[in-house]
Amino acid sequence: MKVSIIGAGPRGIATLTRIVAWYEREHEENEAIAELEVRLFDQFPIGGHIWRIDQPTELIMNTPTAHTTLYTDETVQMHGPLRTGPTLYEWLRDFAPDFISEQGEPDAADLIAVARRLGPNDYAPRRLYGVYQRFVFKQLQQHLPAGVKLTFVQDLVQDLVPLNPGFRVVTSEGSFEADNVIVASGHFTNQATIDQQELIDFAAKSNVTYLPPMFPGDADLSVIQPQENVFVRGLGLSFYDYMAELTIGRGGWFEPVGNKLHYHVSGSEPHIIAGSRRGFPYYPKPNNEKGYGEKIRPSFVTKEKLTQLGEAGELTGNVLFGLMKREIELVYYSLLLHQKDREAEIADFRTQYQATTDPAVLIDRLFDRAEQLDLDFVFNPEQRALASTNYQDFVVEFLQQLIKDATAGNKHGPITGALEAFKDLRDQIRFVVEQGYLSNDEYLDFLIRKYTPLQNFIATGPPVLRLKQLVALIKVGIVELVPAGMQVRPVNDHFEAISKRKPQFQYEARYLVDARIPVNDNEVTANPLIKKLLERGLASLDARQLADGTSFLTRAINVEQQTDRLITADKEVVANLYLWGVPTEGKHWFTNVSFRPGVNDNSLITADRIAEAIFSPSMLVETPLAV
């Protein structure tokens, strides 16, 4: 049996480990089973593009080390054999120094020093997660069961040709036959939009620099001159990467002063002028206090409630969002009572809140107006900021409140601890999506246009450390935030930026960095394999019909919902060809998160399900999603 896995990042490695585990069990039960030959493909070394080990150390992960793994655990509801291993934190603690030394990297001593400083609730440099993936691969490679041959091909897969049966995997330097193929590629850049191409063309003929959306570790920032203006468009995770590279990466450093940070300027930094449509940085991740497998236990967004509403055809976006708000309020006020040393009231409050149909009355009775949770403001803080007399001061003051709350931790800070419900309840939203409980109209209007952008803003932000750094940089004048509605246009020999909401704010710069993460849009992807699959009709885009008869594309690659097999342009399922992860974003939901131990992680379930299908193709069981 020949299996090809395309993508050597976390999903590819996880799939590989499950395939080997399944083979080992099958071989133990039947020694006559055919030998297994697995090829793993990626144009980058093991770990893939995002986690490559030659990127700057200041680019950090967005998940605590103890909440990151590539191994299954006792909570994963799967049919395959359990194969455990160290989490990222356990690896850093027990294995990293020796393994890093063995790799012979030129800065091994510095990397080992960083690894030794990291605790279970810290955020590791992305390159260290890449080294962890190499460890997992080498451990597997060194302990392969008899009958298994494993080869890594460092080359970009450009085409996949059906052979009936099987496939030919085509790279720039050769081709390889396979009986089963799993496409586990992650993020990829897209072809330039019309707006981006205009900026590229303008930069090519003018004395300016434009960096289109890309992964910050790939960007050549050396062209940006010290103390000159640089526009950074986007205030999400990539913004913080660029912020770090243009400050810490240029010799500046942060000094703790009480509960805050002070930035010491090196003189090599540019003046960063940053903005976005919303004009507000993403909310911070609170300091982690949750242990192994610990998450919010839902009271309103339960599987039973969602199933009841969904099967009755009563689960709309508004209903689902209303349940989410109830969940957030329950956590917020419970934490607030804890913060105010009113511990004795928490149990009774939770009972009353869960029972009432009018929570506002209960909240008014128990809490002062000033301390009540204003979700409209939390979800749209830019509205008050725009109405303030000093936008910058308002944002800094609000960020400092968030920092104080997030620093208290996700089991103590009422605001950020409550908003973490958005993260902890992702499996419930996935369940709704996979079960098809939302109509196509609700899927588009609520999930894609409203909820997912809010989820990104509220629950996918950086560690609180990054917001502390941002405030310190604003205070010394290195960073300036543009009010909501940042717009940039080329003018003569420079770029101009304004705030659409406050046009009196105008700026000029010779440098423009597009810090928006490339969205998953397979219609314009630069991934040559995805393009070929679509051209050949082996793959198709997920299209959905609305109530008015029109249709829309989610931009996702269409796969069979519970088997991850590709669906052709003729609506047929392709045997032995699987695709999962980021290219399916839109068909599935929130596919780009790290694998977490102790929570029955859905990505680990998917990896095992694909392995099971390869060894037991007649079964192709529909493993229910974890909720």
From TrEMBL:
Residues covered by the FAD-dependent urate hydroxylase HpyO/Asp monooxygenase CreE-like FAD/NAD(P)-binding domain: 5-188
- Pfam families in UniProt: NAD_binding_9 (PF13454)
InterPro entries per the UniProt record, alphabetical: FAD/NAD-bd_sf, HpyO/CreE_NAD-binding, L-asp_N-monooxygenase_NS-form
Indicate what this protein is called per its UniProt record: FAD-dependent urate hydroxylase HpyO/Asp monooxygenase CreE-like FAD/NAD(P)-binding domain-containing protein
From which organism does this entry originate?
Answer: Amylolactobacillus amylophilus DSM 20533 = JCM 1125
